[in-house]
Amino acid sequence: MMLLVCFDLPRDTKENRKEATKYHKKLVELGFTMKQFSVYEREVRQNSTRDRVIKVLKDRLPKSGAITLYLLPNEVNDSQITILGSESIKKTVRKPQFIVL
C-alpha cells in the first residue's frame, strides 16, 4: 500500500517557513518521496509501520499546519496517470519499487 500525505503549512513568516522546511525534511527521513510540492508518498507493508509513521507525522506537525493522509491499495496506485507539461520533460514517472539488497 502507498501512504499519501497531503499537507498545507503556512509560509507567511520566517518562523513558519523554517517549520515547514523541517517538516519536509522529516518526511524524507521517514522514507517519503515528493510527488508534488505538498504531496509526498511512501510504500508501507505493515499496519504497525503505518501507525508508527502516522504518529510521527502527527507529533511533528507545526501547530498551524494541516495534513490529510490517504492509504492507497497497490491496485489504485498502480493505475495512476501522470500528465506532464512540456516544461516537465525531465521529470521521471515511475512505479514504486521494492528493492532488497
Automatic annotation (TrEMBL):
Q: Name one Pfam family in it.
A: CRISPR_Cas2
Residue positions annotated to bind Mg(2+) are 8
InterPro entries attached to this UniProt entry: CRISPR_associated_Cas2 (IPR021127), Virulence_VapD/CRISPR_Cas2 (IPR019199)
Keywords annotated in UniProt? Antiviral defense, Endonuclease, Hydrolase, Magnesium, Metal-binding, Nuclease
Cell division found in the keyword field: no
The EC number on file is: 3.1.-.-
Keyword Protein transport part of the UniProt annotation: no
The positions making up the signal sequence are none
Gene Ontology MF terms: hydrolase activity; metal ion binding; RNA endonuclease activity
Cofactors demanded by this protein = Mg(2+)
Gene Ontology BP annotations: defense response to virus; maintenance of CRISPR repeat elements
| HAMAP family xref list | Cas2
Q: What does this protein do?
A: CRISPR (clustered regularly interspaced short palindromic repeat), is an adaptive immune system that provides protection against mobile genetic elements (viruses, transposable elements and conjugative plasmids). CRISPR clusters contain sequences complementary to antecedent mobile elements and target invading nucleic acids. CRISPR clusters are transcribed and processed into CRISPR RNA (crRNA). Functions as a ssRNA-specific endoribonuclease. Involved in the integration of spacer DNA into the CRISPR cassette.
What NCBIfam families does the database record attribute to this sequence? Answer: cas2
Q: Which family does it belong to?
A: Belongs to the CRISPR-associated endoribonuclease Cas2 protein family.
According to the record's subunit comment, the protein's assembly and interactions are:
Homodimer, forms a heterotetramer with a Cas1 homodimer.
Task: Report what the protein is called.
Answer: CRISPR-associated endoribonuclease Cas2
Protein source organism: Ligilactobacillus salivarius cp400
Q: Which gene encodes it?
A: cas2
